[in-house]
Specification:
The protein has about 200 residues and is mostly helical. Helix 4 packs parallel to helix 6.
């Protein structure tokens, strides 16, 4: 129990340490070597923006859920599914405007949702999270456009996304009845990362 209460502090510290990685959240993180399941699995873990967004989606879902089932799953499933859609769009050469600013905006919104623990109807939550996930996916898809083994790489990324959502859900569920300031600090860390990325993107 004591570990569960102190874990958010470690998570917040980790998020703060990840801030310097924001500048390399996409291009160059893995040296342009996109191939195979393992590389795809590791890719979301090496970009601070994707890592924070995926954990935050699960974290917010658990904090704001009125019941464990099915409230915990709507937003994570929407994010994972639309991330894949966006990645396929990127692979096909589809161009969306303001991809990087929208990724930064997703962190601002998700961080605020975590901090405030706002409960949204399932359809609204899925629409908001899914829309942002498309931009995350397009960014990945563009990086993979001319690489061999893109399908396996995408499979790895989706697998890592699901696990990160699960980690966020577990963390959020453990904090549902903890001190209110702990989620607020975690949400503020995500907002801070989003603000940093947005300042770099505009």
């Amino acid at each position: 129990m004591r570990f569960a209460k102190s874990f958010p502090l470690l998570a917040t510290l980790l998020a703060t340490l990840l801030l310097p990685l924001a500048a390399s959240a996409h291009v160059g993180v893995d040296g342009g070597m996109h191939h195979g399941f393992s590389t795809g699995f590791l890719h979301p873990l090496t970009g601070a923006d994707h890592l924070a967004a995926m954990v935050a989606v699960g974290f917010w879902s658990a904090l704001s859920a009125r019941r464990a089932w099915p409230d915990l799953l709507w937003a994570p499933l929407a994010f994972a599914g639309m991330l894949l859609v966006g990645a396929l769009m990127g692979l096909a050469g589809v161009q969306l405007p303001a991809v990087e600013p929208m990724i930064a905006a997703s962190l601002l919104v998700l961080g605020l949702l975590v901090a405030t623990r706002v409960h949204l109807p399932a359809g609204v939550a899925m629409a908001v999270v899914g829309a942002f996930a498309v931009f995350h996916g397009v960014a990945h898809g563009h990086e993979l456009a001319n690489e061999d083994g893109a399908a396996l790489t995408l499979a790895g990324m989706v697998g890592a996304t699901v696990l990160l959502h699960g980690a966020g859900i577990a963390l959020g569920w453990s904090l549902r009845h903890a001190n209110a300031w702990l989620p607020r600090v975690a949400g503020a860390a995500v907002v801070g990362l989003g603000a940093t990325l947005l300042a770099q993107a505009i």
